[in-house]
């Protein structure tokens, strides 16, 4: 049985359409999912939308719609965006689905039964944009410490989750060093625990748009409690059919933006621990995409539409740019110029041209038929480079270092491009006595191309599929053996094809 790999993105609020920041997390998760499938893992990739809460309720009211009618309409914009951006999720969860609601209530009831949920009085502050409760002491100038916007007072009877009881367990979990990356986030969360964890209010009396608490229909379950449960309800943890849960839980990775680390690494593992359910393997909190140093967000009015960029430059170049541009984990500034430059130089000149040059030479000198693999010593340079790159990529992908993984793939591409310049196949071709030498050069180049394309397929799935088609590979091959140098048999017909990434100009 191949190892299972379950990964998730946050489920996004549907108070608006997706922007490039949402696309960033979803694309990163997709790259990881595709890479794991390529390695032969049994992958489950979940994304979805967070539909309840005051924020969504308010926007629906403002539009004169019921929240359900509003979310039913806007959710289509989200699924459409993920189709355009080539997101290969296996499931898409909506928190208004019956399958989710009944299980959230079951989870709430289990916690009530075991005593970790209790009835109490809440008096404090609430930030609607963040859907987050704050204590007076946590506020900054009477504003939300996260988004810096004004907060509202809340005083009502609520159900509470006994988060304070889990300090030791959470300290051990986070202190173990593996659960939360990057390290900066881990240290930050350890400090939060050290400063004292208060019990968490998990219901609202004044919010109608939510799942009813089982004991009291006048209260709805706090949107974050509801939302976190999606990771297990999508697998049917409390449903009749638990087969997906048994097959995929615990999650191997929850990918999240750094501002929601607290919920994923404190509240969520504590809830699971209380339920007696295994805790996810890892949470990775990535940095923000910024515009001139400011976080990209709809409310700041600096959001970029990913669909507009995909329509202008293609989904593949956009995906490639976002994964290549910055260290995953750190904040980074979006640059239109850099997107275009990476598209033209890296995808067009380096990768696209290599493919075109190789297939053109094969066509011209060998009628488009791949020669037999050369003797070991004539391919050692490439075989060794490939082995090293494959190892390096595995390490980098395991550490969510997409940009470094791409650098490793570029090592192979650069090597092959340099080999063409060094060996000058057009000169060798003039001398009939050097036929086997030319065979070796062409095989080495084509095989390196095939491998690089396969490794690039998680990043640029459509272009990779078209390129692999030229090597007679209709689908990205999931078998592990295809990820080894030398797997392509002599005699393979290789098509010349057209340039994959024609040069573009920067557009407004
Ligand atoms: O927080 N840069 O939903 P949300 C990078 N519903 N990533 C960004 C980003 C930016 N500028 N802006 C948004 C919620 N994101 C909850 C989650 S999960 C159980 C519930 C991405 O619509 C990033 O992944 O506010 C961030 O964590 C997420 O969108 C927030 O989406």
Provide key terms for this protein.
single chain; 508 residues; alpha/beta; six-stranded parallel beta sheet; 15 strands; binds ligand ME8
Explain how this protein is built.
The protein is α/β, with parallel strands linked by helices. Helices cover 48% and strands 14% of the residues. It is built from 18 helices and 15 strands. It has helices at residues 20-38, 54-62, 67-84, 98-113, 167-175, 183-194, 223-228, 230-233, 243-248, 261-275, 306-313, 315-325, 336-366, 376-398, 402-423, 425-428, 435-456, 461-470, and strands spanning 4-13, 42-50, 91-94, 117-127, 132-134, 152-161, 180-181, 200-201, 203-204, 220-221, 253-257, 282-286, 289-291, 294-295, 332-333. The chain has a 6-stranded parallel sheet, with helices on both faces. Helix 2 (54-62) crosses helix 3, helix 13 (336-366) runs antiparallel to helix 17 and helix 15 packs antiparallel against helix 17 (435-456). The longest helix is centred in the C-terminal third of the chain and has 31 residues, at 336-366. The radius of gyration is 26 Å and the shape is elongated. The mean pLDDT is 95. Residues 10-13, 21-22, 24-25, 50, 227-228, 230, 256-257, 259-260, 288-289, 295-297 line the site of ligand ME8.
């Amino acid at each position: 049985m191949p190892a299972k790999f379950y990964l998730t993105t946050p489920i996004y609020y549907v108070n608006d359409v997706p922007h490039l920041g949402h696309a960033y997390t979803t694309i990163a998760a997709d790259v990881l999912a595709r890479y794991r499938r390529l390695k032969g893992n049994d992958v489950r990739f979940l994304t979805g939308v967070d539909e309840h809460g005051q924020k969504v309720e308010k926007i629906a009211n403002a539009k004169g719609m019921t929240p359900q009618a509003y979310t039913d309409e806007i959710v289509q914009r989200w699924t459409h965006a993920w189709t355009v951006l080539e997101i290969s999720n296996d499931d898409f969860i909506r928190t208004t689905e019956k399958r989710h609601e009944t299980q959230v209530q079951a989870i709430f009831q289990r916690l009530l039964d075991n005593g970790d949920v209790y009835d109490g009085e809440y008096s404090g502050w609430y930030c609607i944009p963040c859907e987050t409760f704050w204590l007076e002491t946590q506020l900054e100038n009477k504003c939300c410490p996260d988004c810096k916007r004004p907060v509202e007072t809340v005083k009502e009877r609520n159900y509470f989750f006994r988060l304070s009881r889990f300090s030791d367990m959470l300290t051990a979990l986070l202190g173990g060093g593996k659960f939360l990356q990057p390290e900066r986030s881990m240290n930050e969360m350890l400090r939060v625990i050290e400063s004292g964890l208060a019990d968490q209010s998990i219901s609202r009396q004044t919010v109608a748009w939510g799942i009813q608490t089982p004991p009291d229909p006048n209260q709805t379950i706090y949107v974050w409690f509801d939302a976190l449960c999606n990771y297990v309800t999508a697998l049917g943890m409390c449903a009749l059919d638990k087969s997906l849960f048994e097959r995929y839980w615990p999650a191997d990775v929850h990918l999240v933006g750094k501002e929601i680390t607290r919920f994923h690494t404190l509240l969520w593992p504590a809830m699971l621990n209380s339920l007696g359910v295994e805790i996810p393997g890892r949470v990775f909190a990535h940095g923000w995409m910024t515009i001139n140093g400011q976080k990209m967000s709809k409310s700041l009015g600096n959001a970029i539409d990913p669909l507009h960029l995909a329509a202008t430059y293609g989904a593949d170049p956009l995906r490639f740019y976002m994964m290549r541009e910055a260290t995953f984990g750190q904040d980074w500034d979006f640059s239109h110029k850099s997107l275009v430059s990476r598209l033209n130089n890296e995808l067009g000149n380096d990768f696209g041209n290599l493919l075109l040059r190789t297939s053109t030479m094969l066509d011209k000198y060998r009628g488009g038929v791949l020669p037999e693999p050369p003797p070991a010593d004539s391919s050692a340079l490439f075989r060794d480079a490939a082995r090293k790159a494959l190892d390096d990529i595995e390490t980098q992908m395991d550490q969510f270092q997409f940009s470094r993984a791409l650098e490793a793939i570029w090592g192979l591409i650069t090597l092959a491009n340099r080999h063409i310049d060094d060996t000058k196949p057009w000169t060798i071709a003039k001398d009939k006595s050097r036929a086997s030498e030319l065979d070796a050069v062409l095989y080495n180049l084509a095989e390196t191309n095939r491998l690089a394309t396969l490794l690039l397929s998680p990043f640029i799935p459509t272009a990779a599929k078209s390129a692999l088609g030229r090597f007679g590979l209709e689908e990205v091959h999931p078998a592990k053996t295809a990820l080894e140098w030398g797997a392509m048999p002599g005699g393979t017909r290789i098509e010349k094809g057209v340039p994959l990434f024609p040069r573009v100009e920067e557009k407004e």
